[in-house]
């Protein structure tokens, strides 16, 4: 089965992991600090590693101080963790609709959804295309809310020449194997605000503080630490950080290859009937994480099943979050976000990853042409 996404591992990655395994540190050692420094060069802001993209969101919401009584405005066109990370801290999640073409959060819908209880506005860079952060920043500043960017798809992307990581108060990343690069499991949160970076570091380390300048009691010994607020153990180990640093050295190459593959899809599928290709935006330079096409005329399920039967592992990204029973049971109803639901009804993600060969891509195109032409 040709997958829709897959990691790219070379000998340098293996050597980095083996070196870490032979060192004195398997977790919370020097490779964590090195990987965070390497990440900052890409994200443009101080970056704190965590165990995965879901815990990155949880940590970001915790750093923002989200709690019961707060509201978080976000998109339904995402993985459930973008919403559940806030809900688990007691917030009410408000779903705003997406732009019809990009499937990114629609600033006009956000503005209509904001109230005096809005604590965070959380955008998602769908398929690697950054959301409209300038418009969202104006809304968040006016509301006195934090702006969060879920950049699980978009590390390496630029918005108006600025890297993701510098566009929001908090930006979360995922390093799952299907993402733009991998640490196997892993994630991170970037922030341009020092006080939020401190809160992130505390939260991912069970809330423990060792900095003498921040302790309430300073008359204890060198063993002493304090927990001033509750946190969780979300530490990413040295072994996985070693893999991450090795992978980051190839990020530019990954981006270039994804761009080549995207351009080939654009050209090869341009005249296929019943197919709508991904939207392009002039103000962004995306790291294309997904290639999401829309299958028209009610044929999405047929196309999905026939491609899978042909050994082509397409995917659907995503089920509108409020359709999940956990949100239905809280009173959320279908029909809330018509653009998101229309997008979901037609979307299929075609295979896209750095090691995808031209011949494998040609196979995908030929199969898709054959189905839609029949």
UniProtKB/TrEMBL annotation:
Cofactor dependence: pyridoxal 5'-phosphate
Top-level taxon of the source organism: Bacteria
Listed CDD domains: AHBA_syn (cd00616)
Gene3D superfamilies: Aspartate Aminotransferase, domain 1, Type I PLP-dependent aspartate aminotransferase-like (Major domain)
Molecular function per GO: pyridoxal phosphate binding; transaminase activity
InterPro entries: DegT/StrS_aminotransferase, PyrdxlP-dep_Trfase, PyrdxlP-dep_Trfase_major, PyrdxlP-dep_Trfase_small
Pfam families tied to this protein: DegT_DnrJ_EryC1
Active-site residues, record numbering mapped to chain: 179
Keyword Ribosomal protein part of the UniProt annotation: no
GO terms of biological process kind: polysaccharide biosynthetic process
Swiss-Prot/TrEMBL keywords: Aminotransferase, Pyridoxal phosphate, Transferase
PTM-bearing positions, type N6-(pyridoxal phosphate)lysine: 179
Family from the record: Belongs to the DegT/DnrJ/EryC1 family.
Protein name, UniProt field: Aminotransferase DegT
Provenance organism: Actinoplanes utahensis
């Amino acid at each position: 089965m040709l997958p829709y996404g897959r990691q790219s591992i070379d000998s340098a990655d293996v050597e980095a992991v083996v070196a870490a395994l032979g060192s004195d540190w398997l977790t919370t050692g020097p490779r964590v600090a090195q990987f965070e420094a390497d990440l900052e060069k890409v994200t443009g802001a101080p970056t704190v590693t965590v165990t995965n993209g879901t815990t990155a969101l949880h940590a970001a919401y915790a750093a923002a101080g989200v709690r019961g009584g707060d509201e978080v405005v976000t998109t339904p066109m995402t993985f459930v963790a973008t919403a559940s990370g806030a809900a688990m801290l007691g917030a009410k999640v408000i779903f705003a609709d997406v732009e019809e073409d990009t499937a990114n959060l629609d600033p006009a819908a956000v503005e209509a959804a904001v109230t005096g209880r809005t604590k965070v506005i959380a955008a998602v860079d769908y398929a690697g295309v950054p959301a409209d952060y300038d418009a969202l920043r104006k809304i968040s500043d006016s509301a006195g809310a934090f702006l969060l960017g879920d950049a699980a798809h978009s590390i390496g992307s630029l918005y108006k020449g600025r890297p993701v990581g510098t566009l929001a108060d908090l930006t979360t990343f995922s390093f799952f194997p299907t993402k733009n690069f991998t640490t196997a499991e892993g994630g991170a949160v970037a922030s341009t605000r020092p006080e939020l970076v401190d809160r992130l570091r505390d939260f991912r380390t069970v809330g423990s503080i060792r900095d003498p300048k921040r302790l309430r009691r300073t008359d204890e010994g060198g063993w002493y630490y304090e927990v001033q607020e509750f946190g969780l153990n979300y530490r990413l180990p040295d072994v996985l950080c070693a893999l991450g640093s090795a992978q980051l050295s190839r990020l530019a190459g990954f981006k270039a290859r994804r761009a080549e593959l995207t351009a080939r899809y654009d050209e090869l599928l341009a005249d296929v009937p019943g197919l709508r290709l991904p939207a392009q935006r002039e103000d962004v330079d995306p790291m294309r994480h997904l290639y999401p096409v829309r299958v028209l005329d009610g044929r999405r399920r047929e196309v999905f099943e026939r491609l899978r039967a042909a050994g082509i592992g397409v995917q659907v990204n995503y089920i509108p979050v409020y359709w999940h029973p956990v949100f239905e049971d809280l009173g959320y109803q279908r029909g809330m976000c018509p653009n998101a639901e229309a997008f979901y009804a037609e979307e299929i993600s075609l295979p896209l990853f750095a090691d995808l060969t031209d011949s494998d891509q040609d196979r995908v195109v030929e199969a898709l042409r054959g189905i839609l032409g029949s």
